[in-house]
Specification:
Blueprint lengths: L1 H9 L4 H11 L6 H17 L4 H4 L4 H13 L7 H20 L5 H7 L6 H13 L3 H15 L10 H17 L4 H20 L9 H12 L9 H18 L10 H4 L4 H8 L22 H18 L1
């Protein structure tokens, strides 16, 4: 794998990536083990660098449909790793389209045509978000969710019960994320997706955990312990309160009730008050579409050098 990554760094255009995608499209791989290795390699290569238009031209609707069909066909497999390998590839392809500057995103286009026929994909997407501790995977999932919730034809892509699970996950993560720079970036991404989830889906008409959501949002504005609130977080939270709580839910914002009294009946929100977004101010407000999860070439070189050093030490 190190050789492949180094080759990708040195080559302006990765020929291996084009070769694999072409062979997948032509059906050269007739067993899951070969497919799994190919998909994992493509995922790592797409994570490594921004694909050029020639590489993206190898992706078409038939390939995206094929990947989604594979996810559905393997839903009952005892070993779920292959299923997740395919989903990770779909996620990083969505990331590449978001970075490309093209007007089309074949991942979203195909999903729009498969509402009700890609249930395993949507369910496992939520499962991965709930279980993954990988910041890159979480960000990739959030970026796809943002694309889904901001595309009118996909507003009802998820079942209502799945949306309830997403709300639970997001409320938990908003409270549990720490105060590192990476955690702050992830929290703001959750807030951007959360806003679209509340306003553009079935939850607009059927709110779920409305009061608890409002309490946690207030908690993010007032974390306690004299912690300063990141200005981007503050702006995002205020926008959700104004556009969702006041305009959609038609609820008044209670500016006189203290945060402690508001949160006294919510264990989740109480936990949130002790781990709020205590991040230095003047953070640049970066839209979720522009947050890149692609690993820089410098980072890859550094990782390879560290691995080589570790192998030399242990040899």
């Amino acid at each position: 794998m190190d050789f492949i990554l180094l080759e990708s760094i040195q080559m302006k255009r990765n020929r291996l990536l084009g070769k694999i995608m072409t062979e997948v499209r032509l059906g050269f791989y007739d067993c899951y083990k070969l497919l799994s290795a190919s998909f994992s390699l493509c995922y790592e290569l797409f994570k490594l660098t921004k694909a050029d238009k020639e590489d993206l031209s190898l992706i078409d609707t038939s390939l995206v449909n094929y990947l989604l069909d594979v996810v559905e066909k393997t839903r009952g497999d005892a070993d779920e790793s292959f299923n997740y390998d395919v989903i990770r590839l779909i996620l990083v392809l969505n990331e590449q389209y978001m970075m490309s500057g093209l007007n089309e995103n074949l991942i979203l286009d195909v999903l729009s045509q498969r509402i009700g026929t890609s249930d395993t994909f949507s369910a496992n997407l939520i499962f991965m978000l709930n279980r993954s501790n990988d910041l890159c995977i979480q960000m990739l999932i959030l970026k796809l969710l943002y694309g889904i919730f901001t595309t009118s034809s996909l507003h009802e892509y998820f079942y209502t019960n799945d949306l309830y699970v997403l709300v639970d996950i997001m409320l938990r993560e908003l409270c549990d994320l720490g105060d590192t720079k990476e955690a702050q970036t992830l929290r703001d991404a959750y807030l951007r997706v959360f806003e679209q989830l509340l306003e553009n889906t079935q939850l607009r008409e059927r709110p779920y955990k409305k009061q608890e959501t409002y309490k946690i949002l207030n908690c993010l504005l007032n974390p306690g312990m004299r912690q300063k609130v990141n200005p981007t977080t503050k702006r995002l939270v205020k926008r959700i309160i104004e556009d969702w709580w006041e305009k959609i839910c038609c609820e008044p914002q209670n500016r006189e009730t203290t945060v402690s009294s508001n949160l006294s009946t919510s264990t989740t929100a109480s936990n949130c008050s002790s781990s709020g977004p205590a991040t230095p101010g003047n953070e640049e407000d970066v839209p979720i579409e522009e947050i890149s999860t692609v690993i820089s070439r410098k980072e890859v070189n550094k990782k390879i050098q560290q691995d080589n050093h570790q192998q030399a030490v242990t040899a």
